[in-house]
Design goal:
With about 200 residues, the chain is α/β, with parallel strands linked by helices. The protein is about 50% helix and about 15% strand. It contains eleven helices and seven strands. The chain has a five-stranded parallel beta sheet with strand order 5-4-1-6-7, with helices on both faces. A two-stranded antiparallel sheet has the order 2-3. α4 packs antiparallel against α5.
């Protein structure tokens, strides 16, 4: 059986940073820094990745920071602008793997509602056999259950799964299950890893 490749999405397939959106809205650099550190933080956003609804999160945050109501609503309405585009070179690797007949999967920490708005904009995802989304499953990396879901839906486990992710904790969780897991840094390093494994 051919080894499958499992890609993370954020900061592996696509760049992602909250500043990409809020830098358009907040002109003052000091205020932008404070906003990203205290209001719309990656830690707060992670609640949506784990399955909490925007209907709960957004009004609650506005009540806590009413001065930033417009910015918090922009988080909800303009989230796709936090995606900075394809990570250089990685989509070429995806297409190369697809041409070789390698089964492709995604395992992503991504809010369900935001995924519903982002997925249709990117045809590269049509090349993947399945995409496991944390917000939909209501469990996020590095929790063991989401890796189990990949195994169940792919019919593969252990070293039959080559996994790339930019978060060391997520890589360690995959390795504890026996996955062939590699910390993502850039497309060149990933290409070398895939070649050394015989996938490209």
């Amino acid at each position: 059986m051919t080894k499958a490749v499992v890609f993370d999405v954020g900061r592996v397939l696509f760049g992602w940073q909250l500043r990409a959106l809020f830098g358009k809205i907040i002109d003052d650099q000091a205020e932008l820094d404070w906003f990203i550190a205290n209001v719309i933080t990656e830690e707060w956003h992670f609640q949506h990745d784990r399955g909490r609804s925007l209907d709960d999160m957004v009004p609650e945050r506005i009540a806590e920071f009413p001065r930033f109501e417009a910015e918090i609503l922009a988080y909800r309405d303009r989230f796709n602008e936090t995606v900075t585009g394809p990570v250089a070179g990685v989509h070429d690797l995806v297409r190369g793997l697809h041409r070789e007949g390698v089964p492709l999967f995604c395992l992503t920490n991504f809010g369900h509602e935001f995924w519903e708005g982002f997925r249709p904009t990117e045809p590269i995802f049509d090349l993947f056999e399945d995409i496991i989304v944390s917000g939909t499953e209501q469990v996020a990396k590095p929790e063991a259950r989401i890796y189990e879901i990949v195994e169940e839906r792919s019919g593969l486990n252990g070293s039959d799964l080559f996994f790339t992710d930019d978060n060391p904790a997520n890589i360690e969780a995959a390795r504890t299950r026996g996955w062939d897991a590699h910390l993502f840094t850039d497309a060149d390093a990933l290409n070398t890893q895939l070649s050394n494994t015989g996938l490209l």
